Amino acid sequence: MDKMGAQEEDINLIYALRGIQVLIGAGVGLEASMTHIAKGGYGIISSDFSRALSGVNSGQRLEDELRRLIKSSKSSDYQRLLTSMLNNVISNTDLVASLEQQASRAEENRTDRLKRYIEDLSGLPEKALILGFLAPLILGLLAISPFLLGGLQGVPGVTIPPIDKMMFAYKGGLLVTIVLLVFMLLGAKAKDPGV
Of 175, 149, 176, nearest to 162 (Cα)? Predict the structure, then answer.
């Protein structure tokens, strides 16, 4: 499965499920519910429904358009919604109960993904804070060490590095710190469940 495509479909799926459920429960037909969702606010689901309704308006059957959407969808939850809608069109099944069950399952899945994401990120803020605070502090102390230890220059066994080398180490260390913080941020972003 295409992870990004499935993630785009899942982002607004619960809202679309609940919207269709409310409309169908209020006595609005499936096609009118799809028209409401197609008018926007539900991301890729709105554009999919809009294309399907355009096909229906040009003479295609609603069930054929739903089958096309099922084939092109990447998220299993979205495919389940479309399959329920198709079953309703074909055999007039109880769509409201099916939508309620699917919405509950989708909410549980979203909650589980969010919990896993939070667990995966545990400790990351502390690591970033330590790295972002202590590295510049320690590097700064090293950079000014030639000034602090300048009086020890003649003592046997003590060598004080030149200032230019220490400033190079300071700047290089800060660059490495920034790169590490960026990698930590990118790692957190890569784990984003998209909920």
Answer: 149
Contacts of 62 (CB under 8 A, 6+ apart): 30, 31, 52, 56, 89
| pLDDT at residue 102, rounded to an integer | 86
Q: Tell me if 66 sits within 8 A of 52, measured CB to CB.
A: yes
Domain annotation for the chain: domains and CATH numbers: 3-116 (1.20.81), 123-190 (no CATH)
Q: Considering only CA atoms, which of 144, 149, 170, 171 is closest in space to residue 160? A: 149
Tell me what pLDDT residue 3 has. Answer: 59
pTM of whole model > 0.70?
Answer: no
Concatenated DSSP letters for the chain? --HHHHHHHHHTHHHHHHHHHHHHHTT--HHHHHHHHHTSSSTHHHHHHHHHHHHHHTT--HHHHHHHHHHH---HHHHHHHHHHHHHHHH---HHHHHHHHHHHHHHHHHHHHHHHHHHHTTHHHHHHHHHHHHHHHHHHHHHHHHHTGGGTTSTT-----HHHHHHHHHHHHHHHHHHHHHHHHHHHHT----
pLDDT digits (tens, 9 = 90+) for 44-75: 899 999 999 999 999 999 889 999 999 998 88
**Residue 63, C-beta contacts closer than 8 angstroms, at least 6 positions apart:** 86, 89, 90
